[in-house]
Each structure stands twice: as C-alpha cells, then as structure tokens.
Amino acid sequence: MINRFKLRNSHDTAINTHHLETTMALACRVLSVARTSSSRCSVHGKFERLFSNQQVSSSSLLLNRLLQIPKSQIKTTLDSDDTSQFSWDSHSLLATLRSSSPEKAQLVLEWRLEKLLKENETSLDRYSSLITLCGKIRNVSLAMRVFTLMESRGIKPDSSVFDSLISACLCSGDVVTALSLFEIMMGSEDYKPTSETYDTFVSGFSSLGNADAMQKWYLAKKAAGFSANVQTYESLVFGCVKLRDFDGADRYFKEMMWLGFMPSLFVIENVLEGLCKCRNVVQVKESMKFLLDGGCKISVNMAEKLIKLYCELRKVDEMEELLVTLMKNDQAHEVLQRVHCGIIRMYAMLDRLDDIEYSVGRMSKEGFAFKCADDVEKVICSYFRCKAYDRLDLFLDHIKDSYKLTRSAYDFLIAGYRRAGLSEKLDPVINDMKLAGIL
C-alpha cells in the first residue's frame, strides 16, 4: 500500500494573498503611521525585544521549596536559603504561590518587610515595590502595614509610594480606599498626583471592567495637563476588549498610532484578540502582515487566537496561508507546531483524509510532532467516520515513534473497532496498551 503520508511530488498551488485596497485597513493604517513616526528606525529592535522568549527564573527552585514546605517553615527557610537569587519583582512567582496558599504568599512578603526593617532600609523604591507585590496577592491590609511602618521609621512617602498603595487597593477591588488616598495626594504638597497616578486608576478600572470609570480617569488625566502614553493606551485597549467594546478599542488604537506611539506586545495582542472576536478575517490578516513586516516574532498566545478563529470559521485556506507566511519569516518552533496541528485538526473536523495525511507528512518532514492528545483523537475519529480502517493503521504506524498514545486515544480505538465489528483489531490495541503501561 502506498504510504499516503509522503509529501506530494508537486507543490501546492500558490495561495493568492488578498490585499485590502482601502487605506482604512487596520494594519496598513498602522504601518503607514509607524513608518512616518520619529521612532521608525527602532521598530524591528523594539518588537524583537518585546516578543523574545522569557528566560527561566533562577528563583524557581526556591519557589518549589516554598510550595512544598508547611507554612510554619516559610520564614526559617527564607532565612537559611540564599534569597539573593529570589526575584522580588517577579509578580508571577508570588501569584503562583498565592494560588496554592495565600497564607504562604503573605508570609513571604512579611518576611521581606521584616528584613527591610532589620536592615534599616531607607530606599523608597524598595518599599514601593513591596507594596506593589502586596497588591498582586490582593492583600491591602499588608500593603497598609508596610506603608505605616515605613512612615513610623521617619521615611516620608512620595507620589510613587502612594501610587503603589492605590494600585494595591484597586487590585483588591477596594475602590473607596484608593479614592481616599487620591484625595490625600491632592491636598498634599509633597506627593501630588502625577501622570503615573492617573495611569494607575485607568489601569485599575480597566482590570476591574469598569469602562465608565476608566474613561473618566483617562479624561481626568488630560484635564490635569498630563499627556497619554503607551501605558495609558494599553489599559484603555485592554479594558475595551475585555468588555467587548471593539469599536472603543479600535478608536484608542487609532489615537495611539496617530500620536506616534509604537504599540507594545500587550496592545497588539489585545487588538488582535478584538479582531478575532469580531471575526474580522481581513483585518486580522492585515495586522499579521504589519507585524511580520516589522520583523517581529509571533507569540504562542497570538497563534492560538488565530487558530481558534480560523477553526471556528472553517477557514482552512487562510490557515495554510498563515503557515506558509510564518515559515518564511522564521517563527518560533512552538508557534509553527501549533499551526501545523491546527491545520490537521481542521482537516479532521472536515473529514478530508487526503489533506490530513499530506499535512501529517509535511509536519513530520519539518521536524514537528503531535503534542496535544485532542488533535490525535480528532484524527482517529475522522478515520472511523470515513470507515478508513487501513488508512488509520498507516496513520498510527506513522506517528508511533514521535507520539505516545494516551489512554483516551486507546479508548477511542477500542470503541471504534467494536462498532465497526473489527474484533481482530482489538487484541493488538490491548497489547499495545500493556506495552505502554496503560493496562
């Protein structure tokens, strides 16, 4: 039998790239502004830094220890360990600890506070950072204690410390205290509200999903004589997308670009998410063209949004086009792997066996393999629906060296063969399960 997973001898018909001819298309509009802005020369470098993969934190081992030990040993462990490697600005680490045990996260920050006091620390930045971390674990009372103890040591707060305290309150949903702190700042001489103070409120209400308050604080910032910046627009776009106000997100994005600000990864991802939720395939393609023309690396998160959109709309040709484009632009291995599997998943949903087999062969030739059990199971189900049992055997043989079937995949096989009355195929499947240690 011919191996259907060999790549076809002739190359696929070239995919015609549709270009939106109106100047109102999102990406073209963005690209035009970006090329004429003063920051044009740094587009590639900025995107390269923004989309680079994050390095594994050296504090991971300590975090794992903190997750495993009882609460009573948290502070003694921190005292005895080399905490110089602990990233105190890593919000994600404390968030992970908080999700497992809020008490442990609080103990870690209490230990940090005790250490600052013992060392007679006078740096406002250190206290401000600690208050911010209290907000990330949604512990306003601890943030207030840090602030109070800092003042009791004769260390006078500045605007940034108040901003951190306001942020901690908003992260915890304590709007009343946040507004009270702002009133204190307004009546002071030493820590008047700054541009960052207003951004703190815009960001806070954006995260809380309060569009009215978010908009009011944005207008209040301008009324106070402060100009909007990238951070401001990040919050505005995020808030609008979160509330499914896609027109508002587009409006703020246009305003941001008109002012000459280069969009950050956060803004781009939110704009892309909004376009995907609107199912605006044309503008999605144009925005991707802008990103790739800028030399950026697409994130896995962005790839997943695109795959989800195209799968929902059954836009397999657009998915194929996306794969070709990403491969030409030397994208990350994981991103390409996700798109390969997304294409196969869509062909399986459509029961297009020839295309499944070609795509699996192409993926293998490029050095990729299945990672998600659901993708493999969808392919198996497609073969059963088409009653293509011999072709299913070929598929399983093709992937056996690169992918180990899960228990659920074996269950699909057993159920499918039984329905088809192919009892002779059951014994080999059961034997394979035993060899894999599943039975």
Commentary on this structure:
- α14 runs antiparallel to α15.
- The two termini are about 30 Å apart.
- The chain is globular.
- The chain is an all-alpha fold and about 450 residues long.
- The protein contains 24 helices and no strands.
- About 10% of the residues have low confidence.
- It is about 65% helix and about 0% strand.
List the keywords.
PPR_rpt, 24 helices, mainly alpha, 67% helix, PPR5-like, 439 residues, TPR_mt
* Secondary-structure element string: HHHHHHHHHHHHHHHHHHHHHHHH
Specify the number of helices: 24
Number of strands: 0
Structural class: mainly alpha
Which stretches of 5+ consecutive residues score pLDDT under 50? 8-58
Percent of residues in beta strands?
Answer: under 5%
Euclidean distance between termini CA atoms: 32 Å
How large is the radius of gyration?
27 Å
Q: What percent of the residues sit in helical stretches (DSSP H or I)? A: 55-70%
Residue-averaged pLDDT: 81
Oligomer: single chain
The geometry reads as: globular
Largest sheet: none
GO molecular function: mRNA binding
InterPro entries: PPR5-like, PPR_rpt, TPR-like_helical_dom_sf, TPR_mt
Protein name: Pentatricopeptide repeat-containing protein-mitochondrial domain-containing protein
Keywords: Repeat
